[in-house]
Specification:
single chain, 505 residues, alpha+beta, Helix Hairpins, five-stranded antiparallel β-sheet, 16 helices
Length: 505
């Protein structure tokens, strides 16, 4: 627009009346300077308004000049160049009547008015544009600083796989500056197989219309360092929704991967150690059971007076031997059973049997223990069909352990209840007591082998600490679930549910 204004002025500058009319009406600030002294000869109304003056005399009297590079000498030098060398265009910091600073874009050109050569200045206030550009540059600088500060690799490619931008961390990957990477593709920096893989992932992101996430191992060309990366690639679109390319962000997960490897190895080592332990316990148990069975058998013979009568002291010794050897045999049998389960060698021996009879048999075996402590045994048996297809011995062991524990940990004059529901598909049994109860934190370790909730209980209530561990594993190999509800001083309820298969299972 300003070039057209200058052209029109040149055309009409010899027609003073027409020139004055154009000069006065122009929407652009126009000043006429003396080409030698730089003095303001004339200025149009737009100029007066822009500077904040009412008259030309006020404008002429204004002190425009500041320190270099916006001083009078610099301005005069530019006026001389316009007069001798041709048009000059530049940005200039100026001052208004109220003292406000503002930016101008100034164009100086030589003109002849009434036969006298002058220099004409056409100016535009660009303060807002400068501020906007400055803000944009600041924003871009801050964004660039942020992107380069982020420890992740960040890059942008077009739809054909050519780089549009990347950050400092990505420069390390290819050992090149951004200016050397932009305009090139992965094929310029890595082997074809690797580049094909990168390009394939770019296409996957575009086709998916959203992020694709994958892990990869890379070697930095900058220093040869190896890293595991988690990479996210997403399609990028402009404001009109047109696809620009693919944005990639990769994060170093080397430490996490190493931790995962360490944890995996630790898990494998623990499993191997546990297997070794189970095998050792099984072997030792076999070695110990044979002599213990002999001791128990011989002590039974002595107790039955097969070789003659015993005095009271001898009978007491024999009784102690029988009890101790029986306790050790039970412990060894428990260890053998647990070892088999943990080694995956425990098999279900399913058979058809009468669940009513088995439950009655187990409860009957518990009655002497309950009677000794004056504990009331309460039964609630609801069985639709008494025939059941399951492992009789293991289910009996589960029930026996739960009932014996309930009686063991219930004080005298307490109550132990057994509730049974069997509907031909699921066997549900609850064993409840009014015993000492178990705290929530102790419940977590209750089913671990050789664990009781504290050493005091171990001393007060004799046991191996294997019973509940075996119960849990027997329930699990049946495909069932075991749960516990308990509060200290309020008693406990152990519940297990086992799906019952058909005879063909």
């Amino acid at each position: 627009m300003r070039d057209k204004e200058t052209s029109k002025i040149s055309e009409i500058q010899n027609n003073e009346e027409l020139y004055k009319a154009f000069f006065v009406d122009s929407p652009i600030s126009i000043l006429i300077h003396d080409k030698e002294t730089g003095e303001i000869i004339d200025a149009n109304p737009t100029t007066l308004k822009m500077y904040g003056f009412s008259t030309l005399d006020e404008l002429k009297a204004n002190e425009f000049w500041m320190e270099p590079p916006y001083s009078f000498n610099e301005a005069l030098d530019l006026i001389h160049k316009a007069a001798t060398e041709g048009p000059q265009e530049f940005e200039w910091l100026n001052i208004k009547a109220n003292g406000d600073l503002f930016w101008e874009n100034i164009r100086l050109s030589k003109v002849k008015i009434n036969g006298i050569e002058r220099v004409m200045a056409t100016t535009i206030d660009i303060t807002e544009l400068k501020s906007a550009n400055s803000a944009l540059m600041t924003s871009e600088s801050q964004l660039r600083t942020l992107v380069d500060t982020i420890p992740d690799l960040i890059w942008l490619k077009d739809t054909e796989g050519f780089f549009l931008a990347c950050n400092t961390k990505f420069e390390r990957l290819y050992g090149s500056r951004e200016s050397e990477i932009v305009g090139k593709s992965d094929y310029d920096f890595v082997d074809k197989e690797k580049a094909d893989y990168f390009f394939k992932k770019d296409k996957e992101a575009i086709e998916a219309g959203g992020p694709v996430i994958f892990e990869e191992k890379v070697i930095y060309a900058y220093d040869g360092q190896e890293e595991y990366l988690e990479t996210i690639k997403s399609p990028m679109y402009d404001t009109n929704g047109k696809l620009i390319g693919v944005l990639g962000v990769s994060r170093d997960i080397t430490e996490r991967k190493n931790s995962e490897d360490i944890l995996l190895q630790a898990k494998l080592d623990a499993e191997a150690a546990n297997q070794t332990k189970s095998e050792f316990l099984a072997n030792m148990s076999h070695e110990l059971r044979t002599p213990l069975n002999s001791i128990f058998g011989f002590s039974q013979m002595l107790n039955e007076r097969v070789q003659g009568e015993l005095n009271d002291k001898q009978a007491s010794y024999v009784s102690n031997i029988m009890q101790s050897s029986k306790h050790l045999i039970d412990l060894i049998n428990d260890i053998l059973d647990l070892s088999k389960v943990e080694a995956g060698k425990m098999k279900l021996e399913r058979e058809i049997f009468n669940i009513d009879e088995m439950i009655d048999e187990t409860i009957s075996s518990m009655k002497p223990l309950a009677k000794k402590k004056n504990i009331d045994l309460v039964e609630d048996i609801r069985i639709v069909n008494s025939e059941i297809h399951a492992d009789r011995k293991k289910i009996k062991d589960i029930l026996y352990n739960l009932l014996s524990n309930a009686i063991k940990f219930t004080p005298e004059n307490g109550r132990v209840s057994i509730k049974v529901n069997y509907d031909s598909e699921t066997l549900d049994i609850d064993v409840s007591d009014t015993g000492i109860g178990i705290s929530e934190k102790d419940q977590e370790k209750l089913f671990e082998p050789f664990r009781q909730v504290n050493s005091f209980l171990t001393r007060e209530f004799e046991g191996t600490g294997l019973g509940l561990a075996i119960v849990k594993r027997y329930v699990e190999i049946h495909g069932g679930t075991l749960s516990l509800k308990s509060k200290p001083g309020k008693g406990s309820t152990f519940s297990f549910s086992i799906p019952i298969g058909t005879e063909n299972d």
